[in-house]
Design goal:
Number of helices: 11
Strand order of the largest sheet: 1-4-5-8
Radius of gyration: 21 Å
Pfam families: Acyl-CoA_dh_1 (PF00441), Acyl-CoA_dh_M (PF02770), Acyl-CoA_dh_N (PF02771)
CATH topology of the largest domain: Butyryl-CoA Dehydrogenase, subunit A, domain 3
Organism: Xenophilus arseniciresistens
Number of strands: 10
Family: Belongs to the acyl-CoA dehydrogenase family.
InterPro entries: Acyl-CoA_Oxase/DH_mid-dom, Acyl-CoA_Oxase/DH_mid-dom_sf, AcylCo_DH-like_C, AcylCo_DH/oxidase_C, AcylCoA_DH/ox_N, AcylCoA_DH/ox_N_sf, AcylCoA_DH/oxidase_NM_dom_sf
Strand content: 15-25%
CATH superfamily of the largest domain: Butyryl-CoA Dehydrogenase, subunit A, domain 3
Largest sheet: 4 strands, mixed
Keywords: FAD, Flavoprotein, Oxidoreductase
Order of helices and strands: HHHHHHEEEEEEEEHEEHHHH
CATH class of the largest domain: Mainly Alpha
Length: 376
């Protein structure tokens, strides 16, 4: 198997890194974190112009026809720049569900405008009592003639404050924890009965909680067969894990580079602190952890192609476990070797550490994935 990037992938990687370097510095990000929107609409439109929003989708759906490796290249850039625009939420999660279950008409109505930067999507699947079990769903959708009425609550909807439409997972049959009986519906923001509570997360991202009380949507907004959304949801969450792994690699790469530069320039007792052999050994450990993380991120992306559900889930759990371990190692070492400066708001290091800490708990923490791995 050839694990080298193709010329097109190399060009994509260079363009993403150039954008982050030239148009999305840390000062720009700090302003966005405290802004009303929490992200840059101009940058979102640029992502569409660059073709980034269309990468994971087939040419038949109006996309570029890329794979998880291509998406991972963009997500690594997201990690390098700590980009605040909802790429994961809109493209990988919301867009992924539409691509998996939507009809041609539904894709033309919601997916293609997202690829063009005109709309943003978000996936509302998690609930206050669900923990990391994605099939735990108390929200219900009952059929009334040519419509469905949805009731329930969703939490931690990534990209929710900026979303124009939500892909809402609700139960049309079965018990709360059943895999069968889950259905997906597209619900526009502002639909009567839909209440949104936005908030900022620990890492400066934006999320929201949703309350749905008697939300009425026509049957044409159901994605796929009634009660058959579980398989697509599981695959999309696995795609999210692979994407997050690449984002973590990008963030870790910046921490490794910035820590090495700090060790070379910070003077103590008349010489750079990087001459201290103990710090050199710790720096080597950071490099090794980064290489391990990069290998596992690629492994996870490649295993998404596996049609064996059990093998795919086991591989993605292994990826998540290793990414969480290496991210914690690199993040903690970077903060410690920067001293007290590592946790100040003015220095980027602490912000990268926060993002890595959030990634560690997204789509299941290490303990949960160890259990899933052992059960596979």
């Amino acid at each position: 198997m050839d694990l080298q990037y193709t010329p097109e992938q190399t060009q994509l990687r260079e363009s993403v890194e150039r954008f982050v370097r030239e148009a999305y510095d840390f000062a720009h990000r700090r302003k966005l974190v405290t802004s009303e929107r929490g992200h840059d609409e101009g940058c979102w439109r640029q992502y569409a112009e660059f073709g980034w929003l269309a990468i994971p989708f087939s040419e038949e759906d109006g996309g570029i026809g890329g794979d998880a490796t291509d998406t991972g290249i963009v997500m690594e850039g997201v990690g390098r720049g700590l980009l605040l625009e909802p790429y994961l939420a809109s493209v990988v999660l919301g867009g992924g569900m539409l691509a998996a279950l939507g009809s041609a008409a539904q894709k033309a109505q919601w997916l293609q405008p997202m690829m063009g930067g005109e709309r943003k999507l978000a996936l509302a699947y998690a609930e206050p009592a669900s923990r990391y079990e994605i099939t735990h769903c108390e929200a219900t959708a009952r059929r009334e003639g040519d419509a469905y009425v949805i009731d329930g609550a969703k939490t931690l909807v990534y990209g929710g404050p900026a979303a124009d439409a939500f892909v809402v997972i609700a139960r049309t049959s079965g018990a709360v924890g059943d895999r069968a009986g889950l259905s997906a519906f597209v619900v526009d923001a502002g639909t009567p009965g839909l209440a949104l509570t936005p908030y900022a997360t620990h890492d400066g991202q934006r999320a929201a909680d949703l309350t749905l009380q008697g939300v009425r949507v026509d049957a044409g907004r159901r994605l796929g067969e009634e009660g058959g959304a579980a398989e697509a949801l599981e695959r999309v969450i696995d795609q999210g894990i692979a994407a997050l792994a690449s984002e973590a690699v990008g963030a870790m790469a910046v921490l490794v580079d910035s820590t090495l530069e700090y060790l070379k320039t910070r003077q103590q007792f008349g010489r750079p602190i990087g001459t201290n052999q103990a710090l050199q050994h710790r720096m080597v450990d950071m490099y090794i952890a980064l290489d391990e993380a990069r290998s596992m991120a690629l492994y996870g992306a490649l295993m998404l192609r596996d049609e064996d559900t059990a093998a795919r889930r086991k591989a993605l759990s292994a990826t998540k476990i290793e990414i969480d371990r290496t991210a914690r190692r690199v993040g903690q070492e970077a903060v410690q070797m920067h001293g007290a400066m590592g946790v100040t708001e003015e220095l980027a290091v602490g912000h990268y550490f926060k993002r890595l800490s959030m990634i560690a708990t997204t789509f299941g923490d290490s303990d949960w994935h160890v259990e899933r791995y052992m059960a596979s």
